[in-house]
Design brief:
Helix 3 runs parallel beside helix 4 and helix 3 crosses helix 8. The relative contact order is 0.15. The protein is globular. It has a 5-stranded parallel β-sheet with strand order 1-2-3-5-4, sandwiched between helices. It starts with 16 loop residues before the first helix and ends in a 6-residue tail after the last strand. It is of the alpha/beta class and 236 residues long. The chain contains 8 helices and 5 strands.
Length: 236
């Protein structure tokens, strides 16, 4: 697998992410929503996604859709570490004239594929994106959507799950970051919900980088794939 993520003038690693996140301040940071996604985002952008700042418009790039956009601090930190946005944008997070809003705006944030933050939108958009790529004959790009477990309270996600399995959207990947925020329990757990609709599913420790990488790259011929990444409860 070729990682197309390019280096920046200053090289940043995983250990630098807390410092980058610390540059962003304000009263509406949604800290737990952000920090719950940090490890997932890093492993994806550092080792899995075939995308780079130079190839943001490449039709063959992988698409990453952050549905969990109400906590974008970790996302912005990773985008800065990987050279998509300047690090000096981070201290302006959430200010009136900053491109880095409390919800990402795809027209303002380089590398953001969608505007997001409203619960339940990202996975349906990812399904449509995978269908669109298939219709164009683009078989290489993969589509990734990151959602929170609370988004599974929204019916739109279950419609997307129910459609994607029988449609055989094997270029579609979803990561559910499970920090025990959902209101409604899922019989058998989150993975079982996807498996019932014909998805390939893996549940892992959402802080274990090697486990995440193995789950992200697991083969799933003919089926969409979901990784449930369990992290500490939001209230912990």
């Amino acid at each position: 697998m070729t990682n197309m993520t390019s280096a920046t003038d200053v090289t940043y690693g995983y250990a630098d992410l807390p410092g980058l996140m610390g540059l962003m301040t304000g009263d509406e940071k949604h800290g737990p929503a952000a920090t719950s996604t940090l490890d997932v985002l890093w492993v994806l952008y550092d080792r899995v996604l075939r995308v780079s700042p130079e190839r943001r418009a490449d039709p063959e790039r992988d698409r990453f859709l952050l549905s969990k956009g109400h906590g974008p601090m970790a996302y912005y930190a990773v985008l800065a570490a990987k050279g998509f946005v300047p690090v000096d944008w981070l201290p302006g997070f959430g200010s009136y004239d900053s491109p880095l809003g409390h919800h990402p705006d795809r027209t303002l944030v380089p590398g953001a594929e969608i505007g997001s933050g409203s619960l339940g939108h990202g996975l349906p958009i990812a399904v449509g994106t995978a269908l669109g790529l298939r219709a164009q004959g683009l078989g290489e790009p993969r589509v990734w959507a990151l959602i929170g477990d609370a988004e599974l309270d929204e019916g739109s996600n279950h419609e997307a799950i129910a459609f994607a399995g029988p449609a055989g959207l094997d270029r579609l990947h979803t990561v559910v970051v499970d920090n025990s925020s959902a209101t409604y329990a899922r019989p058998g757990g989150i993975a079982a919900r996807f498996e019932a609709a014909g998805w390939s599913a893996v549940t892992v420790d959402g802080r274990d980088h090697e486990a995440l990488f193995a789950a992200f790259t697991a083969p799933h011929p003919g089926r969409p794939h979901v990784v449930v990444a369990r992290v500490e409860p939001k209230s912990a």
